[in-house]
Design brief:
Helix content is about 30%, strand content about 25%. It is of the alpha+beta class. It has a single domain, classed as Ribosomal Protein L22, Chain A (Alpha-Beta Complex). The strands form four sheets. The protein has a five-stranded mixed sheet with strand order 1-12-2-6-5, with helices on one face. Helix 2 runs antiparallel to helix 3. It is globular, with a radius of gyration of 18 Å.
């Protein structure tokens, strides 16, 4: 999945057993596109966007929520502003009147990721960056098996391993709809760079091998990403959302 071709939204729902991953590169959004995206947000969403201090954060929020509305509108033949969303007890949004179309969003370092599927899906994108307290986070919060995988690894490789592991874990917990309510040490993903992405352990899950965890190849120049779902196999297509000039 090395290509992210620029395509318009699909006018149908993802077939069973598949997920569509769309990215938006925020630096490529001009003022006119930004204004069009902002115009289709709800009043509540515009209020949330306006509370961000940094312009880059406002743009990422607007691109994510506006892009989601465009994708849902095409899939369901509705107007982008018509959608209202509900949240579960942990804050994961969903459509109130559909159980055949699920979505998840993530953004980091100017890259927005939106995943659509017919089943519960989790998606995460992370910009690889220096993290001064990385070793402490690994020791205190990650699963002991993940921490063991990272032990004794050189700093450059350890940094990449950390964010690759983190993106896989975030995708799993977002597919579960649990947010940060599930302790990071209660489940384990493959962390080594030479290991295939997988869910290895999860409290209360009898068969973690039934999950698909799939890495996304270079969603951004210095980014890693992953999607996860309790389904196998899971076909994935990656696209860049065409937003016009």
């Amino acid at each position: 999945m090395s290509d992210w071709p620029i395509l318009p939204p699909e006018h149908d729902r993802p077939p069973a057993g598949t997920a569509r991953c769309w990215r938006i590169v925020c630096r490529e959004i001009g003022d006119a596109v930004r204004d069009r995206l902002a115009a289709i947000l709800s009043e509540e969403e515009r209020g949330r966007a306006g509370r961000f201090v940094r312009d880059s954060d406002r743009l990422s929020f607007t691109a994510a929520h506006g892009g989601l509305r465009l994708l849902l509108a095409a899939s369901l033949n509705r107007e982008p502003r018509q959608f209202t969303f509900v949240q579960n007890a942990y804050g994961k949004p969903a459509l109130p009147d559909r159980n055949d179309l699920h979505f998840n969003m993530s953004h980091s370092g100017g890259i927005v990721l939106i995943a659509l599927a017919s089943i519960e899906i989790g998606a995460d994108v992370e910009k690889i960056r220096p993290l001064p307290d990385r070793d402490e986070i690994v020791r205190r919060f990650l699963h002991p098996g993940e921490a063991a995988d990272m032990a004794g690894v050189g700093d450059g490789e350890a940094q990449h391993m950390f964010f690759r592991c983190w993106s896989r874990k975030e995708a799993v917990v977002k597919a579960l709809g649990r947010g940060m309510s599930l302790d990071l040490n209660k489940y384990r993903v493959a962390a080594r760079l030479d290991a295939a992405p997988a869910l290895l352990e999860l409290d209360g899950e009898a068969d973690p091998a039934a999950w698909s965890v799939i890495d996304l190849d270079r969603p951004g120049p210095d980014h890693v990403g992953a999607i996860a779902a309790r389904a196998k196999p899971l076909g994935v297509s990656c696209r860049t959302l065409a937003l016009g000039a």
